[in-house]
Amino acid sequence: MTRGWRIAGGIAAGLALVVLGVLLFKAGLDDADKWASVIGVFATLLGLILAGYGVVLSRRALRSSPQAAGVQVTASGTRSTAAQTISGTVSTGDTVPGRSAEKDKTPAGNTPQADPTPAAETPQTTEAAQLTVTASGERAIAAQTISGTVSTGDDTTGNR
Known about the structure:
Blueprint lengths: L2 H25 L1 H36 L6 E6 L4 E11 L39 E6 L4 E11 L9
Parallel strand pairs: 1-3, 2-4
């Protein structure tokens, strides 16, 4: 939508509100109250329909958006973690930041929980669109997108 259409739409909506206000003022308080109730019902129905349409559009966008095609995820090395998306807390140490050490003991060799996308399930596309996420080495962490806390050590607070 261009700027000119937005301005024209705003002016039209403003004029419509002014005309409606004048009509309700001339109708008197009782009649204006009744009309406002009727108009409110239709405005609510319109809002509900628009909200439903927004949900449909967002679901279509999620369904039709290209899933990270050509992403290869590999993790090699002791306690390394690789994922397409990491959200939340991932720790390759013995403790998770913000928790007690007893709850978060991870036996050596086990990879903490992440949301890995195996390379076998990822459709291959052109070489230009291919992305490789690799974590190699001891306690390495790699991801295309990280939103949360990631720790590679046992002590993240620095307080001993």
